[in-house]
Design brief:
Layout (H helix, E strand, L loop, with lengths): L4 E5 L3 H9 L2 E5 L5 H7 L4 E2 L3 H6 L8 E4 L13 H6 L2 H34 L7 E4 L2 H22 L5 H14 L1
Parallel strand pairs: 1-2, 1-3, 4-5
């Protein structure tokens, strides 16, 4: 597993706890500081989607990129619930329908951009980055390390006694059947 790997993270208690469980030294910082921090060795790594790494040119200042497939980065639609609840029912339905229709497109667009940027990064001879794809066994090791973080989430983060995590785990179990 990781040993004292200083990684830029978002300033989120759950993310910090996760990275500590992996054996890393999570370092919260704005992504706007990341390029320089990678270049100067302030941090050893970062977690971002491939399309973001490529578009922000982070690959220019990192020697390795690990493909873990641990997270799906898709923009989400969020609105103020008071504002939404005050909309007429037909407007709420239109927003719900449009959001649902766009979901598949967003996943496909993310996949296309990730593939395009990965190819660009792989073929950048001026700034070579070694691409490492984790095996299922390696991913399992991270899953094992992350297991105790679920308790941390339930006890320290969740405002609904872990109901969201329970729902997610149930949905994953249904998909695996």
């Amino acid at each position: 597993m990781l040993s004292y790997w200083k990684s830029r993270t978002q300033d989120s208690p759950l993310i910090l706890e996760s990275y500590e469980a992996y054996g890393a030294d999570p370092t919260p910082m704005s992504w706007s500081e990341l390029y320089t921090s990678l270049d100067r060795g302030t941090v050893d790594g970062q977690e971002n989607p491939i399309f973001f790494i490529g578009d922000a040119s982070f690959h220019e200042v990192q020697d390795y990129m690990t493909i873990s497939n641990h997270n799906n980065y898709v923009a989400m639609t969020t609105v103020n619930s008071d504002w939404y609840n005050e909309l007429p029912e037909d407007m709420q339905e239109m927003l719900d329908e449009t959001t649902q229709e766009m979901q598949e497109w967003a996943f496909e667009e993310q996949d296309a951009q990730n593939k395009e940027w990965l190819e660009t990064i792989e073929n950048d001879d001026e700034n070579p980055t070694e691409i490492i794809e984790l095996t299922e066994e390696q991913r399992d090791a991270f899953r094992d390390k992350a297991e105790p973080v679920r308790d941390y989430y339930r006890e320290e983060v969740s405002t609904v006694d872990g109901a969201i995590l329970d729902k997610l785990q149930d949905e994953i179990a249904e998909m695996e059947e």
